[in-house]
């Protein structure tokens, strides 16, 4: 792929923040709250994880890493951080675990293209490395480009210094292209993990034991009751998270919901991750915002989505 100067460099992820969990019981506490196994998380790894309600609906999605045996960092969108921190704190009770907002102490950066390849290019996906005082996590490649997440002490741009400046919108567009849904304020409590393919991208461990909503998530997995999935679309318009999507011929009822969306850095149209009823795929056409809204054009995700049985719900 020819290098695109719009998609090479580093940007400060000001729309993201970090929740920190510390204490002797931090691992066991998070193990009982998140959809993925964190007890086995090693110092050279990072993982996706979700935080669900008792009904199995995602309240948040995180990238999790473990700076120390008794410390975890959970990166998530800043617009949900305070509410999620408050909700998680309700469950601490007598556990030896302190939760706090570490966003003022940790800066998050995204690196992509040659800039990322020079720092994490030979790492495995989700491998975590240290570069002086910064954590570097290799993310799944997107649009043929190496990507990484850098967590640095606030004000220390050492791991990203001298890199080309990447527009925040370009990073956001690549996030959408990755097919990995991030729960934002507009989509809190909207999706069971399978609806946004979370188990397909490594965000759910079905052997780790109980957490809020675990029975609902497990039932959806083992009884084959997932009738909704998320797909990647392009559109001439710019979609918004939480926006409804309609199928051709629909009268009143939406076929799905925009989970994440971003403008194309080229300046033309945008892309969206859309959670849909599987039956809507056979409708002949999908539209943004209304039955007569801008048409959505399906694109290929970086991973396979099981849609063998397209059923009416």
Protein traits:
alpha+beta; five-stranded antiparallel β-sheet; 313 residues
Overview of the molecule:
The protein is an alpha+beta fold and 313 residues long. Helices cover 14% and strands 33% of the residues. Strands 15-12-13-14-11-16 form a six-stranded antiparallel beta sheet. Strands 1-7-10-9-8 form a five-stranded antiparallel beta sheet. A five-stranded antiparallel beta sheet has the order 3-4-5-2-6. The longest helix is centred in the N-terminal third of the chain and has 12 residues, at 78-89. The radius of gyration is 19 Å and the shape is globular. Mean pLDDT is 93; it is low at 309-313.
Q: Kindly state the percentage of residues in helix.
A: 10-25%
Q: In whole angstroms, how far apart are the ends?
A: 41 Å
Radius of gyration: 19 Å
Mean of all residue-level pLDDT scores: 93
Order of helices and strands: EEHEEEHEEHEEEHHEEEEEE
Extended strand count: 16
Outline of this structure?
With 313 residues, the chain is an alpha+beta fold.
